[in-house]
């Protein structure tokens, strides 16, 4: 099993969710986060004064899938979240050793 974490622009959430649902992904977790990458934030003007916005709002999507599904899920997220502009985000994949569904006690891939 693999954990796929994707950091995306907030307005892309519905497109990514719909694309993952189309693949048969049954559940995901979404967290509102702030951060910056290469763009290092940006400047804005408020009431005539310029100020720096160091941390930009993003969403973190987490989904656990069987290892054989990773490439397909990563490609789907990437295609759905892409705008072609700076700040589109990143996708990280890590291994999951063990999973348990609390309600039923099912473990590992059965818990997904």
From TrEMBL:
GO cellular component, one term: cytosol
Keyword line: Nitrogen fixation, Nucleotide-binding, Phosphoprotein, Transcription, Transcription regulation
Record Gene3D superfamilies: 3.30.70.120
Domain of life of the source: Bacteria
Any single GO BP term: regulation of nitrogen utilization
Molecular-function GO term, any one: ATP binding
Membrane spanning stretches: none
Pfam family, one: P-II
Modified residues (O-UMP-tyrosine): 51
Subunit annotation: Homotrimer.
Family label: Belongs to the P(II) protein family.
Function of the molecule: In nitrogen-limiting conditions, when the ratio of Gln to 2-ketoglutarate decreases, P-II is uridylylated to P-II-UMP. P-II-UMP allows the deadenylation of glutamine synthetase (GS), thus activating the enzyme. Conversely, in nitrogen excess P-II is deuridylated and promotes the adenylation of GS. P-II indirectly controls the transcription of the GS gene (glnA). P-II prevents NR-II-catalyzed conversion of NR-I to NR-I-phosphate, the transcriptional activator of glnA. When P-II is uridylylated to P-II-UMP, these events are reversed.
PANTHER family linked: NITROGEN REGULATORY PROTEIN P-II, NITROGEN REGULATORY PROTEIN P-II HOMOLOG
Protein name: Nitrogen regulatory protein P-II
Lineage: Bacteria, Pseudomonadati, Pseudomonadota, Alphaproteobacteria, Hyphomicrobiales
């Amino acid at each position: 099993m693999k954990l796929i974490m994707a950091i995306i622009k907030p307005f892309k959430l519905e497109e990514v969710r719909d694309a993952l649902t189309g693949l048969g992904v049954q559940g995901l977790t979404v967290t509102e986060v702030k951060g910056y990458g290469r763009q290092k934030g940006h400047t804005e003007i408020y009431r005539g004064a310029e100020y720096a916005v160091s941390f930009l709002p993003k969403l973190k999507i987490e989904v656990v899938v069987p290892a054989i599904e990773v490439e397909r899920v990563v490609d789907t997220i990437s295609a759905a979240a892409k705008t072609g502009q700076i700040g589109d985000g990143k996708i990280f994949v890590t291994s999951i050793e063990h999973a348990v569904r609390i309600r039923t006690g099912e473990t590992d891939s059965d818990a997904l």
